[in-house]
């Protein structure tokens, strides 16, 4: 997998999520994603970006335009230095929430992505990577 | 802070969300609408989301909350104009928007509100609220 181009977006407060969504939309449109695929990755990004701010105490997202063989994709990597996730299986379960949300964010973002990777340990922050191929 | 305007149309309140809302803005709209329903004695709320290209779990929860709060204040809520790509994504995300009425257009949404609150067809003679 090769990273063709990359952008970074800070995630500190709730209007950063709006800016990130606009950036993700711009890149997804640029890659020629269908409208449904654009909507899916923007929605997944919105869920994960909010998690980074609320649960991770802020962080950032890298937007990578990637290529693997003949296919192009958009990879989003969310990182924070927050408290981390003790039980990642539980965190991915629909309806489970440590805050006051609906508990759909992580599981929903995974369903909306073609690839999903979560790395986290208590006290060591969280890194979540999602990819949607064109 | 930016606010989403709420328009009063007879017994109903009308909101069209034209901007990409951040979370605080969505919470403010929820509060504003609930207060307006109570103040105006509104019987229905129409929320048009045709300009939204994304509804995530936060906005989905706001819509459900508005609908529930309106119901306990004796008002009906209808959400109109959801784009097909948004509907597909919502369901995959796992949001069901249970108990929320929907209509494809503002016109159909207004008809639905009129029929739900028993004010007759809006093209007929206007009936004052009892």
In short:
The complex is a heterodimer of chains A (134) and B (130). The longest helix of chain A is centred in the N-terminal third of the chain and has 20 residues, at 35-54. Chain A has one domain: Histidine kinase-like ATPase, C-terminal domain (Heat Shock Protein 90).
Please tag this protein with its features.
heterodimer, A: 134 residues, alpha+beta, Heat Shock Protein 90, B: 130 residues, globular
Question: Describe it for me?
Answer:
The complex is a heterodimer of chains A (134) and B (130). Chain A has helices spanning 14-30, 35-54, 88-91, 105-111; strands spanning 2-11, 59-68, 71-80, 115-120, 126-133. In chain A, helix 1 packs antiparallel against helix 2 (35-54) and helix 2 runs antiparallel to helix 4. The longest helix of chain A is centred in the N-terminal third of the chain and has 20 residues, at 35-54. The two termini of chain A are 14 Å apart. Chain A has four helices and five strands; from the N terminus they run βααββααββ. With 134 residues, chain A is of the alpha+beta class. By secondary structure, chain B is an alpha/beta fold. Chain B has one domain (7-116): Transcription Regulator spoIIAA, CATH 3.30.750. Helix content of chain B is 42%, strand content 16%. Chain B contains four helices and five strands. Chain B has helices spanning 23-40, 57-72, 84-93, 106-116; strands at residues 7-9, 12-16, 44-48, 76-80, 101-103. In chain B, helix 1 (23-40) packs parallel to helix 2 (57-72). The longest helix of chain B has 18 residues, at 23-40. Chain B is globular, with a radius of gyration of 14 Å. Chain B starts with 6 loop residues before the first strand and ends in a 14-residue tail after the last helix. The interface between A and B is medium-sized, with 26 and 22 residues.
Based on the structure, what is the oligomeric state of the protein chains?
A: heterodimer
Q: Tell me, what is the CATH class of chain A?
A: Alpha Beta
Going across the biggest sheet of chain B, name each strand in turn: 1-2-3-4-5
- Beta-strand residue percentage of chain A: 25-35%
The major beta sheet of chain B can be summarized as: 5 strands, mixed
Q: Treating each run of at least 4 consecutive H or I residues as one helix, how many helices of chain B? A: 4
Order of helices and strands of chain B: EEHEHEHEH
CATH superfamily of chain B: STAS domain
Q: What's the end-to-end separation of chain B, in Å?
A: 37 Å
Rg of chain B, rounded, reads: 14 Å
Q: Span from first to last CA of chain A?
A: 14 Å
CATH architecture classification of chain A? 2-Layer Sandwich
């Amino acid at each position: 997998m090769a990273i063709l181009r990359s952008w970074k977006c800070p995630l500190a407060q709730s209007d950063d999520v709006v800016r990130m969504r606009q950036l993700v939309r711009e890149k997804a449109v640029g890659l020629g994603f269908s409208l449904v695929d654009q909507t899916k990755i923007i929605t997944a990004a919105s869920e994960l970006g909010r998690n980074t701010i609320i649960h991770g105490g802020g962080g950032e997202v890298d937007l990578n335009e990637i290529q693997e063989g003949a296919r192009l994709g958009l990879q989003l990597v969310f990182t924070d230095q927050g408290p981390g996730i003790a039980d990642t299986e539980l965190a991915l379960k629909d309806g489970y929430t440590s805050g006051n949300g609906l508990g759909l964010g992580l599981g929903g973002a995974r369903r909306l992505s073609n690839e999903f990777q979560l790395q986290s340990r208590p006290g060591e922050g969280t890194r979540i990577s999602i990819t949607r191929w064109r | 802070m930016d606010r989403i305007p709420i328009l009063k149309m007879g017994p109903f309140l009308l909101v069209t969300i034209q901007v990409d809302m951040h979370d605080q803005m969505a919470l403010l709209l929820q509060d504003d609408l609930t207060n307006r329903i109570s103040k105006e004695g509104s019987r229905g709320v129409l929320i048009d989301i045709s300009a939204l290209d994304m509804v995530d779990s936060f906005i989905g929860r706001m819509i459900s909350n508005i609908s529930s709060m309106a119901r306990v204040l004796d008002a009906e809520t209808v959400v109109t104009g959801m784009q097909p790509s948004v509907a597909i994504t919502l369901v995959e995300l796992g949001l069901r928007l249970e108990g929320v009425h929907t209509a494809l257009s503002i016109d159909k949404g207004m008809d639905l509100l009129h029929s739900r609150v028993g004010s007759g067809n809006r093209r007929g003679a206007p009936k004052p609220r009892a």
